[in-house]
Design a protein that fits this description.
The chain has 5 helices and no strands. It has a single domain, classed as Up-down Bundle (Four Helix Bundle (Hemerythrin (Met), subunit A)). Helix 1 runs antiparallel to helix 5 and helix 4 runs antiparallel to helix 5. With 156 residues, it is mostly helical. The relative contact order is 0.17.
């Protein structure tokens, strides 16, 4: 995947999905029968993902003794990987914050149909960005870990 495409696809798709959900008006996050449970589950998953990425970033930045990590840190891809990880952290935090706000203010949001559609569209766009930046960070991290695994297998 080209770097420009890799960097932008989560945001392009999130914007498209958010606009589609606003226009379509079929994706209601507050009027569904199971909305409270769904929002609670999404909040929990976002918190777990945030914790995972925070731990991954800490470990990646702290490990110095492995030759592969030293090579990675000197190369051009380390900043990209760290950027992707922090992007995933940011979007998971956005999803958590938006979900918490929606749960807290759901009764007043439902009262105005336009505001409800707008907030639902923004939340769905944020959720899409959170999922896609997490996937992008995971894919990049998995690629790095596979390379490290094959390098250690060759030298060991």
């Amino acid at each position: 995947m080209r770097i420009a495409t890799e960097r932008s696809y989560p945001y392009v798709f999130a914007t498209a999905v958010g606009l589609l959900s606003f226009v379509w008006d079929g994706w209601s996050i507050l009027t569904a029968q199971q909305s409270a449970k769904t929002l609670d589950n999404i909040f929990t998953v976002s918190a777990v993902a945030l914790g995972f990425w925070g731990t991954a970033a800490t470990l990646l930045l702290a490990v110095e003794e492995k030759s592969f990590v030293r090579k990675l840190k000197k190369g051009p891809h380390f900043r990209l990987l760290v950027g992707y990880i922090f992007s995933a952290i940011t979007w998971q935090a956005v999803v958590m914050g938006m979900t918490l706000a929606i749960v807290a203010f759901s009764k007043s949001i439902i009262q105005n149909a336009y505001v409800h559609r707008l907030i639902a569209a923004c939340w769905i766009a944020g959720l899409t960005a959170g999922v896609l930046t997490t996937f992008r960070g995971y894919y990049c991290l998995a690629t790095v870990l596979k390379a490290a695994s094959s390098e250690s297998g060759e030298s060991g």
